[in-house]
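User: These chains co-purify. Model them together.
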Amino acid sequence: MSPRSSLADAARTRAAILAHGAAVASVEGLAGLTIGRLAADLGMSKSGLLGPFGNKETLQLQVVEAAADVFWREIWEPVADRPAGLPRLAAVCGSWVRHLARPVYPGGCFFIAAASEFDDRPGPVRDLVLGYADRWHRELRGQALRAVADGDLPADTDPEQLVFELTGLALALHQALRLRQDAGAVPRACQGMGRLLGVPVRPPA
Amino acid sequence: MSPRSSLADAARTRAAILAHGAAVASVEGLAGLTIGRLAADLGMSKSGLLGPFGNKETLQLQVVEAAADVFWREIWEPVADRPAGLPRLAAVCGSWVRHLARPVYPGGCFFIAAASEFDDRPGPVRDLVLGYADRWHRELRGQALRAVADGDLPADTDPEQLVFELTGLALALHQALRLRQDAGAVPRACQGMGRLLGVPVRPPA
DNA sequence: CCTACCGATCGGTAGG
DNA sequence: CCTACCGATCGGTAGG
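Assistant: Joint model of the four components:
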């Protein structure tokens, strides 16, 4: 075993806390995260766990950021090589569906849960979640605009309406999978998205 | 003032607890409901508040039932006189949109929040929320089936797919209103629903 | 319905 | 990173 600097140890500890925190928060909620529970799960003391963050809210914010990194890598990175516009939009819808159908976190999509939990709780956590939601929204809309400009979507397409309806299908898929445990919702989400885009949408293998 | 029996007093106390509990839960979550906070809000002692219910879980279950009554009265009762099938389905979509856009609870739709919060927490609360979600789903699907039988929707319409997409539009509306505070989502939800049904959908006055 | 109280757990701090 | 500890609050009970 090679020796490890205490700096690298600290970074790995921090990453482990954030990864486990996101997993727990996906089930119990970000507000339901407790320092004592996380510390017990990871075999640490409460003060040792809190140390790198200082207080619970900072821990929550960094858990959100860590989950955003995972989300981005799961969904956008695999399709970054697709041509901008309709091809990339259809591909990202496919990887979005795959993300929702895959056990990335035990409680399903971290961001759908966090958005619902904090939509009415003003403060830094809500602001951060909203910031990521806006970024996601603009990214989708940008591809939709490009698809219209390319003539790959009808000229009278309203990109806002399209993004709104795609988002609805993703939210319906999440609810059907998590609450109703209805795996048949995966092809239904793909069919709905495919009809909106005029091209097939499929979760990648 | 007419005298009141202690029985009627108790019933009014119980109703006040459940109404306020649903309002608080719409913001803080059903799990975030605390007996001490509810008691303080209502000027009662903790033991007095807990008395009619016995424990917190029973209180949660009865809050869900009270919210379900409100939901039913808000959405289905106003359209019960519409002809079954497409007319009633379009009308219920309109009152659904109105419900989501109206400040019925300070935290938005109680059931969307509760479904998200408890979708991964096994137990009686989840079972009850799921039961109401199933009932809602079957009610919509029944009207869709009737609309197809009446020839008011194309014969190849898949009622499951239709209900899935209508639900998605409602979920997207809720998220847009609560998280993004985007009132423009109301006409977008109506447009999406109207396109699915082939008839206009409008929130009633 | 109340007061008074229980053990457990909360977020967080002192000191090392 | 740890132990030891803080005041506050949790769900719930005893007794009236």
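Residues 34-37, 46-47, 50, 54-56 of chain B lie near DNA strand D (CB under 10 Å from a C1').
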